[in-house]
Protein backbone atom coordinates (compact mmCIF):
# COMPACT_ATOMS: atom_id res chain seq x y z
CA UNK A 1 0.00 0.00 0.00
CA UNK A 2 1.08 3.60 -0.54
CA UNK A 3 2.59 5.58 2.36
CA UNK A 4 -0.09 7.55 4.16
CA UNK A 5 0.07 11.33 4.42
CA UNK A 6 -2.95 13.00 5.95
CA UNK A 7 -4.11 16.49 5.07
CA UNK A 8 -2.76 18.11 8.26
CA UNK A 9 0.69 16.60 7.70
CA UNK A 10 0.64 17.73 4.09
CA UNK A 11 -0.19 21.32 5.00
CA UNK A 12 2.65 21.39 7.52
CA UNK A 13 5.02 20.05 4.88
CA UNK A 14 3.81 22.54 2.29
CA UNK A 15 4.28 25.42 4.70
CA UNK A 16 7.97 24.62 5.08
CA UNK A 17 8.63 23.93 1.39
CA UNK A 18 10.83 26.33 -0.52
CA UNK A 19 8.91 28.63 -2.83
CA UNK A 20 9.11 28.04 -6.56
CA UNK A 21 9.46 30.89 -9.06
CA UNK A 22 5.70 30.94 -9.65
CA UNK A 23 4.80 31.48 -6.01
CA UNK A 24 7.68 33.91 -5.46
CA UNK A 25 6.18 36.12 -8.15
CA UNK A 26 2.93 36.39 -6.21
CA UNK A 27 2.16 38.52 -3.17
CA UNK A 28 2.86 36.01 -0.48
CA UNK A 29 1.97 37.86 2.69
CA UNK A 30 -0.74 40.03 4.14
CA UNK A 31 1.83 42.83 4.40
CA UNK A 32 1.45 43.49 0.67
CA UNK A 33 -1.32 45.96 0.13
CA UNK A 34 -2.59 44.89 -3.26
CA UNK A 35 -3.37 41.38 -4.38
CA UNK A 36 -3.06 40.44 -8.05
CA UNK A 37 -6.03 39.85 -10.27
CA UNK A 38 -6.85 36.17 -10.78
CA UNK A 39 -8.14 35.45 -14.28
CA UNK A 40 -9.36 31.98 -15.28
CA UNK A 41 -9.81 31.45 -19.03
CA UNK A 42 -11.57 28.11 -19.50
CA UNK A 43 -12.20 26.68 -22.96
CA UNK A 44 -14.87 23.97 -22.89
CA UNK A 45 -13.94 20.42 -24.00
CA UNK A 46 -10.31 21.34 -24.70
CA UNK A 47 -8.24 18.16 -24.55
CA UNK A 48 -4.57 18.66 -23.66
CA UNK A 49 -3.66 15.70 -25.86
CA UNK A 50 -4.89 17.62 -28.94
CA UNK A 51 -2.68 20.64 -28.29
CA UNK A 52 0.72 21.17 -29.88
CA UNK A 53 1.50 23.03 -26.65
CA UNK A 54 1.46 19.56 -25.04
CA UNK A 55 3.30 17.73 -27.84
CA UNK A 56 0.42 16.89 -30.21
CA UNK A 57 1.53 16.03 -33.76
CA UNK A 58 -0.63 18.72 -35.35
CA UNK A 59 0.20 22.41 -34.85
CA UNK A 60 -3.12 23.30 -33.27
CA UNK A 61 -2.04 25.82 -30.62
CA UNK A 62 0.93 28.10 -31.43
CA UNK A 63 -0.49 30.93 -29.33
CA UNK A 64 -1.00 28.67 -26.34
CA UNK A 65 2.65 27.68 -26.83
CA UNK A 66 3.52 31.39 -26.77
CA UNK A 67 1.59 31.79 -23.53
CA UNK A 68 3.34 28.73 -22.08
CA UNK A 69 6.74 30.31 -22.74
CA UNK A 70 6.05 32.76 -19.91
CA UNK A 71 4.09 30.45 -17.63
CA UNK A 72 4.09 27.28 -15.56
CA UNK A 73 2.85 24.28 -17.55
CA UNK A 74 1.25 21.34 -15.75
CA UNK A 75 1.69 18.24 -17.90
CA UNK A 76 -0.35 15.69 -15.96
CA UNK A 77 -3.50 17.60 -15.05
CA UNK A 78 -6.88 15.84 -14.91
CA UNK A 79 -10.51 16.75 -14.54
CA UNK A 80 -12.48 15.16 -11.70
CA UNK A 81 -15.31 14.38 -14.13
CA UNK A 82 -15.75 13.77 -17.86
CA UNK A 83 -18.43 16.39 -18.56
CA UNK A 84 -19.16 19.94 -17.51
CA UNK A 85 -21.45 19.71 -14.49
CA UNK A 86 -19.33 17.54 -12.15
CA UNK A 87 -16.00 18.89 -13.36
CA UNK A 88 -16.92 22.57 -13.01
CA UNK A 89 -18.50 21.89 -9.62
CA UNK A 90 -15.20 20.29 -8.56
CA UNK A 91 -13.30 23.40 -9.66
CA UNK A 92 -15.68 25.66 -7.71
CA UNK A 93 -15.74 23.56 -4.52
CA UNK A 94 -12.37 21.80 -4.42
CA UNK A 95 -14.21 18.50 -3.88
CA UNK A 96 -14.78 15.37 -5.95
CA UNK A 97 -18.18 14.63 -7.55
CA UNK A 98 -18.97 11.96 -4.95
CA UNK A 99 -18.80 14.77 -2.37
CA UNK A 100 -20.48 17.73 -4.10
CA UNK A 101 -23.05 15.38 -5.77
CA UNK A 102 -23.50 17.40 -8.97
CA UNK A 103 -23.43 14.06 -10.75
CA UNK A 104 -26.09 14.44 -13.43
CA UNK A 105 -26.26 16.61 -16.52
CA UNK A 106 -28.24 19.47 -14.98
CA UNK A 107 -27.95 18.67 -11.27
CA UNK A 108 -26.77 21.15 -8.67
CA UNK A 109 -24.19 21.06 -5.91
CA UNK A 110 -25.71 19.56 -2.78
CA UNK A 111 -27.01 22.01 -0.15
CA UNK A 112 -24.50 20.64 2.39
CA UNK A 113 -21.52 21.43 0.12
CA UNK A 114 -22.90 24.57 -1.53
CA UNK A 115 -21.49 27.03 1.08
CA UNK A 116 -18.02 25.55 0.50
CA UNK A 117 -16.96 27.35 -2.66
CA UNK A 118 -14.30 29.52 -4.19
CA UNK A 119 -16.49 32.59 -4.65
CA UNK A 120 -17.45 32.68 -0.98
CA UNK A 121 -13.84 32.29 0.13
CA UNK A 122 -12.56 35.07 -2.16
CA UNK A 123 -15.53 37.37 -1.62
CA UNK A 124 -14.01 39.77 0.92
CA UNK A 125 -10.68 40.20 -0.87
CA UNK A 126 -11.68 40.38 -4.56
CA UNK A 127 -14.16 41.97 -6.92
CA UNK A 128 -15.70 38.97 -8.67
CA UNK A 129 -16.82 38.72 -12.29
CA UNK A 130 -18.18 35.65 -14.09
CA UNK A 131 -19.17 34.89 -17.66
CA UNK A 132 -19.89 31.50 -19.20
CA UNK A 133 -21.37 30.27 -22.46
CA UNK A 134 -22.24 26.88 -20.93
CA UNK A 135 -25.80 26.64 -19.60
CA UNK A 136 -24.93 24.06 -16.95
CA UNK A 137 -22.04 26.11 -15.59
CA UNK A 138 -24.29 29.16 -15.63
CA UNK A 139 -26.89 27.46 -13.44
CA UNK A 140 -24.09 26.66 -10.97
CA UNK A 141 -22.95 30.29 -11.03
CA UNK A 142 -26.47 31.38 -10.06
CA UNK A 143 -25.95 29.48 -6.79
CA UNK A 144 -23.20 32.00 -6.02
CA UNK A 145 -24.92 35.13 -7.31
CA UNK A 146 -24.63 36.81 -3.91
CA UNK A 147 -20.83 36.79 -4.18
CA UNK A 148 -20.60 38.04 -7.78
CA UNK A 149 -20.18 41.74 -8.41
CA UNK A 150 -20.96 41.11 -12.05
CA UNK A 151 -22.51 38.04 -13.68
CA UNK A 152 -22.85 38.47 -17.42
CA UNK A 153 -25.80 36.81 -19.20
CA UNK A 154 -24.96 33.65 -21.12
CA UNK A 155 -26.01 35.21 -24.44
CA UNK A 156 -23.69 38.22 -24.11
CA UNK A 157 -21.54 39.03 -27.17
CA UNK A 158 -23.72 36.86 -29.46
CA UNK A 159 -25.36 37.34 -32.87
CA UNK A 160 -28.79 35.77 -32.49
CA UNK A 161 -30.96 33.61 -30.29
CA UNK A 162 -31.55 33.95 -26.58
CA UNK A 163 -32.15 32.08 -23.36
CA UNK A 164 -34.90 32.88 -20.89
CA UNK A 165 -34.02 31.23 -17.57
CA UNK A 166 -31.60 33.93 -16.43
CA UNK A 167 -34.16 36.72 -16.82
CA UNK A 168 -37.31 34.91 -15.73
CA UNK A 169 -35.86 32.85 -12.87
CA UNK A 170 -32.62 34.46 -11.61
CA UNK A 171 -33.20 32.96 -8.15
CA UNK A 172 -33.82 29.45 -9.47
CA UNK A 173 -31.91 29.19 -12.72
CA UNK A 174 -32.02 25.40 -12.96
CA UNK A 175 -35.83 25.44 -12.61
CA UNK A 176 -36.04 28.09 -15.31
CA UNK A 177 -33.71 26.15 -17.59
CA UNK A 178 -35.74 22.95 -17.28
CA UNK A 179 -39.23 24.46 -17.35
CA UNK A 180 -38.77 27.18 -19.96
CA UNK A 181 -35.67 26.74 -22.13
CA UNK A 182 -35.69 22.93 -22.17
CA UNK A 183 -39.46 22.30 -21.98
CA UNK A 184 -41.39 25.13 -23.61
CA UNK A 185 -38.61 25.89 -26.10
CA UNK A 186 -36.94 22.50 -26.25
CA UNK A 187 -34.43 22.15 -29.09
CA UNK A 188 -33.23 18.59 -29.26
CA UNK A 189 -36.51 16.61 -29.41
CA UNK A 190 -40.23 17.32 -29.61
CA UNK A 191 -41.16 20.73 -28.25
CA UNK A 192 -43.07 21.03 -24.99
CA UNK A 193 -45.28 23.91 -26.14
CA UNK A 194 -46.32 23.87 -29.79
CA UNK A 195 -47.30 27.54 -30.01
CA UNK A 196 -44.44 29.04 -27.98
CA UNK A 197 -41.80 26.84 -29.54
CA UNK A 198 -42.96 27.62 -33.08
CA UNK A 199 -43.03 31.33 -32.27
CA UNK A 200 -39.53 31.15 -30.82
CA UNK A 201 -38.27 29.00 -33.71
CA UNK A 202 -39.60 31.41 -36.33
CA UNK A 203 -38.01 34.40 -34.62
CA UNK A 204 -34.69 32.67 -34.02
CA UNK A 205 -34.49 31.02 -37.43
CA UNK A 206 -35.22 34.26 -39.26
CA UNK A 207 -32.40 36.10 -37.47
CA UNK A 208 -30.01 33.15 -37.67
CA UNK A 209 -30.61 32.63 -41.39
CA UNK A 210 -30.02 36.32 -41.97
CA UNK A 211 -26.64 36.16 -40.25
CA UNK A 212 -25.81 32.76 -41.75
CA UNK A 213 -26.29 34.07 -45.29
CA UNK A 214 -24.34 37.22 -44.51
CA UNK A 215 -21.47 35.22 -42.99
CA UNK A 216 -21.65 32.21 -45.32
CA UNK A 217 -18.21 32.79 -46.78
CA UNK A 218 -16.65 33.23 -43.33
CA UNK A 219 -18.41 30.20 -41.76
CA UNK A 220 -19.23 27.76 -44.61
CA UNK A 221 -20.18 24.98 -42.16
CA UNK A 222 -22.47 27.19 -40.10
CA UNK A 223 -22.09 29.66 -37.27
CA UNK A 224 -20.68 28.60 -33.91
CA UNK A 225 -23.49 27.81 -31.47
CA UNK A 226 -23.79 27.48 -27.73
CA UNK A 227 -24.65 23.81 -27.13
CA UNK A 228 -28.22 23.06 -25.96
CA UNK A 229 -29.43 26.49 -27.14
CA UNK A 230 -30.30 28.40 -30.30
CA UNK A 231 -27.71 31.06 -29.48
CA UNK A 232 -25.23 31.72 -32.30
CA UNK A 233 -22.04 33.76 -32.23
CA UNK A 234 -18.87 34.73 -34.02
CA UNK A 235 -15.74 33.62 -32.23
CA UNK A 236 -13.95 36.92 -32.82
CA UNK A 237 -16.95 38.88 -31.54
CA UNK A 238 -17.05 36.87 -28.30
CA UNK A 239 -13.31 37.35 -27.80
CA UNK A 240 -13.73 41.10 -28.36
CA UNK A 241 -16.30 41.06 -25.56
CA UNK A 242 -13.93 39.16 -23.27
CA UNK A 243 -11.18 41.70 -24.01
CA UNK A 244 -13.49 44.55 -23.01
CA UNK A 245 -14.51 42.67 -19.87
CA UNK A 246 -10.94 42.01 -18.72
CA UNK A 247 -9.61 45.46 -19.61
CA UNK A 248 -12.22 46.95 -17.29
CA UNK A 249 -11.25 44.92 -14.20
CA UNK A 250 -10.52 46.81 -10.99
CA UNK A 251 -7.63 45.32 -9.06
CA UNK A 252 -7.87 42.97 -7.32
CA UNK A 253 -10.51 41.06 -9.27
CA UNK A 254 -11.28 37.37 -9.67
CA UNK A 255 -12.61 36.77 -13.19
CA UNK A 256 -14.02 33.43 -14.33
CA UNK A 257 -14.45 33.28 -18.12
CA UNK A 258 -15.78 29.99 -19.56
CA UNK A 259 -16.16 29.95 -23.35
CA UNK A 260 -17.92 27.24 -25.35
CA UNK A 261 -15.35 26.50 -28.11
CA UNK A 262 -14.02 24.01 -29.00
CA UNK A 263 -17.07 22.11 -27.69
CA UNK A 264 -19.30 20.60 -30.38
CA UNK A 265 -20.74 21.57 -32.78
CA UNK A 266 -17.33 22.10 -34.38
CA UNK A 267 -17.69 25.07 -36.75
CA UNK A 268 -14.29 26.53 -37.63
CA UNK A 269 -14.08 29.64 -39.78
CA UNK A 270 -13.19 29.30 -43.47
CA UNK A 271 -9.39 29.84 -43.20
CA UNK A 272 -9.10 26.77 -40.95
CA UNK A 273 -11.13 24.30 -43.01
CA UNK A 274 -8.17 23.18 -45.09
CA UNK A 275 -5.91 22.44 -42.13
CA UNK A 276 -4.68 18.99 -41.10
CA UNK A 277 -5.67 17.16 -44.28
CA UNK A 278 -2.57 15.09 -43.61
CA UNK A 279 -3.84 11.55 -43.19
CA UNK A 280 -2.41 11.42 -39.68
CA UNK A 281 -4.13 9.14 -37.19
CA UNK A 282 -3.33 7.90 -33.68
CA UNK A 283 -2.84 4.17 -33.03
CA UNK A 284 -6.07 2.23 -33.74
CA UNK A 285 -7.89 1.00 -30.65
CA UNK A 286 -10.42 -1.74 -30.17
CA UNK A 287 -14.02 -0.58 -29.83
CA UNK A 288 -15.08 -0.38 -26.21
CA UNK A 289 -18.12 -2.28 -24.95
CA UNK A 290 -19.68 0.95 -23.66
CA UNK A 291 -18.96 3.06 -26.76
CA UNK A 292 -21.39 3.95 -29.55
CA UNK A 293 -19.49 1.99 -32.21
CA UNK A 294 -18.57 4.92 -34.46
CA UNK A 295 -16.32 3.97 -37.39
CA UNK A 296 -12.63 4.88 -37.49
CA UNK A 297 -13.22 6.90 -40.66
CA UNK A 298 -15.91 9.01 -39.02
CA UNK A 299 -13.82 9.50 -35.88
CA UNK A 300 -10.87 10.68 -38.00
CA UNK A 301 -13.14 13.18 -39.73
CA UNK A 302 -14.51 14.46 -36.42
CA UNK A 303 -11.01 14.73 -34.95
CA UNK A 304 -9.78 16.77 -37.89
CA UNK A 305 -12.71 19.21 -37.66
CA UNK A 306 -12.18 19.48 -33.90
CA UNK A 307 -8.48 20.23 -34.44
CA UNK A 308 -9.44 22.92 -36.96
CA UNK A 309 -11.80 24.48 -34.41
CA UNK A 310 -9.03 24.37 -31.79
CA UNK A 311 -6.68 26.17 -34.21
CA UNK A 312 -9.39 28.78 -34.84
CA UNK A 313 -9.83 29.24 -31.09
CA UNK A 314 -6.07 29.46 -30.61
CA UNK A 315 -5.86 32.32 -33.09
CA UNK A 316 -8.47 34.24 -31.10
CA UNK A 317 -6.62 33.40 -27.89
CA UNK A 318 -3.55 34.99 -29.48
CA UNK A 319 -5.51 38.22 -29.96
CA UNK A 320 -6.54 38.04 -26.31
CA UNK A 321 -2.90 37.61 -25.25
CA UNK A 322 -1.88 40.66 -27.27
CA UNK A 323 -4.68 42.74 -25.75
CA UNK A 324 -3.83 41.66 -22.20
CA UNK A 325 -0.18 42.46 -22.86
CA UNK A 326 -1.00 45.95 -24.13
CA UNK A 327 -3.22 46.59 -21.10
CA UNK A 328 -0.52 45.47 -18.65
CA UNK A 329 -2.62 42.64 -17.26
CA UNK A 330 0.30 40.20 -17.25
CA UNK A 331 2.13 42.47 -14.81
CA UNK A 332 -0.59 42.51 -12.16
CA UNK A 333 -2.56 39.32 -12.80
CA UNK A 334 -2.31 35.58 -12.35
CA UNK A 335 -3.66 34.24 -15.65
CA UNK A 336 -4.86 30.63 -15.79
CA UNK A 337 -5.68 28.70 -18.97
CA UNK A 338 -7.57 25.44 -18.46
CA UNK A 339 -10.62 23.38 -19.46
CA UNK A 340 -13.44 21.49 -17.76
CA UNK A 341 -12.89 18.16 -19.56
CA UNK A 342 -11.43 16.70 -22.73
CA UNK A 343 -12.81 15.13 -25.90
CA UNK A 344 -12.42 11.58 -27.21
CA UNK A 345 -12.14 10.26 -30.80
CA UNK A 346 -11.27 6.60 -30.31
CA UNK A 347 -12.57 3.13 -29.32
CA UNK A 348 -15.79 3.81 -31.24
CA UNK A 349 -16.57 6.80 -29.00
CA UNK A 350 -16.83 10.50 -29.72
CA UNK A 351 -17.29 13.44 -27.38
CA UNK A 352 -17.16 13.26 -23.61
CA UNK A 353 -20.57 12.65 -22.04
CA UNK A 354 -20.30 8.85 -21.83
CA UNK A 355 -19.34 6.20 -19.24
CA UNK A 356 -15.66 6.27 -20.33
CA UNK A 357 -12.78 8.00 -18.55
CA UNK A 358 -9.82 7.37 -20.82
CA UNK A 359 -7.12 10.05 -20.91
CA UNK A 360 -8.51 12.05 -23.88
CA UNK A 361 -11.72 12.58 -21.90
CA UNK A 362 -10.08 13.80 -18.70
CA UNK A 363 -6.58 15.15 -19.50
CA UNK A 364 -6.93 18.91 -19.63
CA UNK A 365 -4.51 21.81 -20.01
CA UNK A 366 -3.39 23.87 -17.04
CA UNK A 367 -1.04 26.76 -17.79
CA UNK A 368 -0.55 29.48 -15.16
CA UNK A 369 1.27 32.77 -15.63
CA UNK A 370 2.16 34.67 -12.44
CA UNK A 371 2.37 38.48 -12.43
CA UNK A 372 5.48 39.51 -14.30
CA UNK A 373 6.55 35.93 -15.05
CA UNK A 374 8.97 35.75 -17.98
CA UNK A 375 10.32 32.20 -18.00
CA UNK A 376 8.68 28.85 -18.54
CA UNK A 377 8.47 26.21 -15.83
CA UNK A 378 7.30 22.62 -16.42
CA UNK A 379 5.69 20.45 -13.76
CA UNK A 380 4.98 16.77 -14.38
CA UNK A 381 3.38 15.93 -11.02
CA UNK A 382 -0.08 14.36 -11.05
CA UNK A 383 -2.70 17.06 -10.41
CA UNK A 384 -6.49 17.42 -10.45
CA UNK A 385 -8.85 20.32 -10.97
CA UNK A 386 -9.88 19.97 -7.30
CA UNK A 387 -6.44 21.51 -6.67
CA UNK A 388 -7.38 24.89 -8.13
CA UNK A 389 -9.36 26.03 -5.08
CA UNK A 390 -6.52 25.58 -2.54
CA UNK A 391 -4.05 27.00 -5.07
CA UNK A 392 -6.04 30.18 -5.64
CA UNK A 393 -6.38 30.57 -1.89
CA UNK A 394 -2.57 30.47 -1.71
CA UNK A 395 -2.46 33.38 -4.16
CA UNK A 396 -4.93 35.29 -2.00
CA UNK A 397 -2.96 34.54 1.16
CA UNK A 398 -5.88 32.57 2.61
CA UNK A 399 -5.77 29.18 4.37
CA UNK A 400 -7.09 26.02 2.76
CA UNK A 401 -10.24 24.80 4.55
CA UNK A 402 -10.29 21.27 5.94
CA UNK A 403 -13.19 20.27 3.70
CA UNK A 404 -11.22 20.74 0.47
CA UNK A 405 -10.17 17.46 -1.15
CA UNK A 406 -7.53 19.17 -3.28
CA UNK A 407 -3.95 20.20 -2.56
CA UNK A 408 -2.09 23.37 -3.50
CA UNK A 409 -0.36 22.88 -6.82
CA UNK A 410 3.41 22.45 -6.96
CA UNK A 411 4.58 25.94 -7.82
CA UNK A 412 1.79 27.49 -5.76
CA UNK A 413 2.86 26.39 -2.30
CA UNK A 414 2.32 22.69 -2.87
CA UNK A 415 4.86 19.89 -3.01
CA UNK A 416 5.17 16.97 -5.40
CA UNK A 417 4.04 13.68 -3.85
CA UNK A 418 5.17 10.79 -6.09
CA UNK A 419 2.47 8.35 -4.98
CA UNK A 420 -0.42 10.77 -4.65
CA UNK A 421 -3.85 9.41 -5.63
CA UNK A 422 -6.44 11.37 -7.59
CA UNK A 423 -9.93 10.29 -8.66
CA UNK A 424 -12.30 10.70 -11.59
CA UNK A 425 -16.05 10.11 -11.16
CA UNK A 426 -18.61 9.63 -13.97
CA UNK A 427 -22.07 8.93 -12.54
CA UNK A 428 -24.65 10.79 -14.62
CA UNK A 429 -26.96 7.73 -14.58
CA UNK A 430 -26.77 7.44 -10.78
CA UNK A 431 -29.25 9.39 -8.60
CA UNK A 432 -27.35 12.15 -6.82
CA UNK A 433 -28.90 11.24 -3.45
CA UNK A 434 -28.02 7.54 -3.62
CA UNK A 435 -24.79 5.53 -3.20
CA UNK A 436 -22.72 5.11 -6.35
CA UNK A 437 -24.12 1.94 -7.90
CA UNK A 438 -24.03 2.86 -11.60
CA UNK A 439 -20.85 4.75 -12.33
CA UNK A 440 -17.36 4.71 -13.78
CA UNK A 441 -14.70 5.59 -11.23
CA UNK A 442 -10.98 5.89 -11.86
CA UNK A 443 -8.05 5.99 -9.46
CA UNK A 444 -4.76 7.35 -10.78
CA UNK A 445 -1.69 6.92 -8.60
CA UNK A 446 1.78 7.63 -9.94
CA UNK A 447 2.03 5.96 -13.35
CA UNK A 448 -0.87 3.56 -12.76
CA UNK A 449 -4.55 3.96 -13.52
CA UNK A 450 -7.41 1.70 -12.43
CA UNK A 451 -10.92 2.08 -13.85
CA UNK A 452 -13.92 0.42 -12.18
CA UNK A 453 -17.21 0.08 -14.08
CA UNK A 454 -20.19 -0.36 -11.75
CA UNK A 455 -23.75 -1.34 -12.62
CA UNK A 456 -23.69 -1.30 -16.44
CA UNK A 457 -25.87 -3.99 -17.95
CA UNK A 458 -23.26 -5.38 -20.35
CA UNK A 459 -20.12 -4.38 -18.47
CA UNK A 460 -21.00 -4.91 -14.83
CA UNK A 461 -18.29 -4.77 -12.16
CA UNK A 462 -15.41 -4.75 -14.62
CA UNK A 463 -11.91 -3.36 -14.06
CA UNK A 464 -9.30 -1.97 -16.44
CA UNK A 465 -5.72 -1.28 -15.38
CA UNK A 466 -3.09 0.66 -17.34
CA UNK A 467 0.56 1.56 -16.91
CA UNK A 468 0.41 5.11 -18.27
CA UNK A 469 4.17 5.53 -18.35
CA UNK A 470 4.80 2.52 -20.58
CA UNK A 471 1.39 2.53 -22.27
CA UNK A 472 0.23 6.17 -22.56
CA UNK A 473 -2.35 5.25 -25.22
CA UNK A 474 -4.05 2.82 -22.79
CA UNK A 475 -3.87 0.00 -25.30
CA UNK A 476 -3.19 -2.89 -22.91
CA UNK A 477 -5.49 -3.70 -20.02
CA UNK A 478 -3.18 -5.58 -17.63
CA UNK A 479 -5.61 -5.81 -14.72
CA UNK A 480 -5.37 -9.59 -14.44
CA UNK A 481 -1.57 -9.75 -14.61
CA UNK A 482 -0.02 -6.61 -13.13
CA UNK A 483 1.11 -6.94 -9.49
CA UNK A 484 0.03 -3.37 -8.62
CA UNK A 485 -3.56 -3.82 -9.80
CA UNK A 486 -4.87 -5.44 -6.62
CA UNK A 487 -3.25 -2.75 -4.49
CA UNK A 488 -5.07 0.01 -6.37
CA UNK A 489 -8.29 -2.01 -6.34
CA UNK A 490 -8.15 -2.31 -2.56
CA UNK A 491 -7.62 1.44 -2.26
CA UNK A 492 -10.45 2.29 -4.64
CA UNK A 493 -12.87 -0.20 -3.05
CA UNK A 494 -12.11 1.30 0.37
CA UNK A 495 -12.65 4.83 -0.94
CA UNK A 496 -15.96 3.92 -2.58
CA UNK A 497 -17.21 2.33 0.63
CA UNK A 498 -16.23 5.49 2.51
CA UNK A 499 -17.95 7.97 0.16
CA UNK A 500 -21.07 5.79 -0.20
CA UNK A 501 -21.60 5.38 3.54
CA UNK A 502 -23.53 8.68 4.09
CA UNK A 503 -26.05 7.68 1.40
CA UNK A 504 -26.78 4.12 2.52
For this structure, what is the CATH class of the largest domain?
Alpha Beta
What coarse outline follows from CA principal-axis ratios?
globular
Q: From the 3D coordinates, which CATH architecture of the largest domain would you assign?
A: 3-Layer(aba) Sandwich
Q: What is the end-to-end distance?
A: 27 Å
* Rg computed from alpha carbons, rounded to a whole number of angstroms: 22 Å
Classified in CATH, the superfamily of the largest domain is: Alkaline Phosphatase, subunit A
Number of strands: 16
Strand content: 5-15%
Assign the structural class, choosing from mainly alpha, mainly beta, alpha/beta, alpha+beta, or little secondary structure: alpha/beta
CATH topology of the largest domain: Alkaline Phosphatase, subunit A
Q: Mean pLDDT, as a whole number?
A: 88
Helical stretch count? 16
Query: How are strands sequenced across the largest beta sheet?
Result: 5-4-6-1-7-10-2-11
Question: Topology, please?
Answer:
Blueprint: H1 7-16, H2 21-24, E1 37-43, H3 62-68, E2 72-74, E3 77-78, H4 84-93, H5 97-100, H6 118-122, E4 127-132, H7 135-141, E5 150-151, H8 165-168, H9 173-184, H10 194-214, H11 235-247, E6 253-259, H12 296-326, H13 329-332, E7 333-338, E8 344-346, E9 349-351, H14 359-362, E10 366-369, E11 377-379, E12 383-384, H15 388-395, E13 421-426, E14 439-445, E15 448-454, E16 462-467, H16 485-500
Parallel strand pairs: 1-6, 1-7, 2-11, 3-12, 4-5, 4-6
Antiparallel strand pairs: 2-10, 7-10, 8-9, 13-14, 14-15, 15-16
Helix pairs in contact: 3-12, 11-12
Amino acid sequence: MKPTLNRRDFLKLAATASLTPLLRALPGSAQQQELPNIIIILFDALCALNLSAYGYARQTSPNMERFASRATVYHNHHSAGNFTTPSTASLFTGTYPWTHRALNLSSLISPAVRPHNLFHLLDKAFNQVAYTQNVYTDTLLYLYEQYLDRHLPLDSFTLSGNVFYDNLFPNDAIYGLKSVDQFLFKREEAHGSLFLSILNDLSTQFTTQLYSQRLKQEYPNGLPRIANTDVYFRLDQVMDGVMDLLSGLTQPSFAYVHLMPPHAPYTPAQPYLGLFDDGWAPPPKKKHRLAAGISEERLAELRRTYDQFVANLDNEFGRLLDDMESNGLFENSCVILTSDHGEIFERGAHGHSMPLVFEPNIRIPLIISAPGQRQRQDITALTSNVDLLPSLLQIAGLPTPDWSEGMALPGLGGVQIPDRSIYVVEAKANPSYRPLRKATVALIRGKYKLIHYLGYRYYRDNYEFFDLENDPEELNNVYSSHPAAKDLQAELDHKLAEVNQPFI
